[in-house]
Design brief:
four-stranded antiparallel β-sheet
Length: 144
Amino acid sequence: MEATLGKVRTLGKVRNKKGLTLIELLAVVLIIGIIAAIAIPAVSNAIEKSKNNADLANQRLIVDAANRYALEQSPAAVTLTVAELLANGYITSLPKFNNKAKHEVASVTITPRTNPTGSGLDGYIITLTGTDTSNFKNMTITTP
């Protein structure tokens, strides 16, 4: 058997050895499959987490808008919708929630908080109530 320029001569026949065998090809496909099986759930979890974080950021935006409303209007106690905050210019657009059942806000309740000594206003308690009351966890924030 003698080698001639990347080809193997066996029994008078010349065969080209530049391609992949079936076993080598199967090994490559198997490795790609294993990498995909690890990477796809990780990417999926990262996407879901980023959507959740975006929804929580929208909720914080609504809380900030309600706080500005409370500071400017000094209400005794009031319940507003997100649309009312929009109509009064406290937010520029209605937030879009990825998981509406878990994060979409239906109303905002603003309650004044008095100083423990009883001498005036000490901030506000802002409570978010969701559109889907079975899945939404009411969020209460105390502002300074």
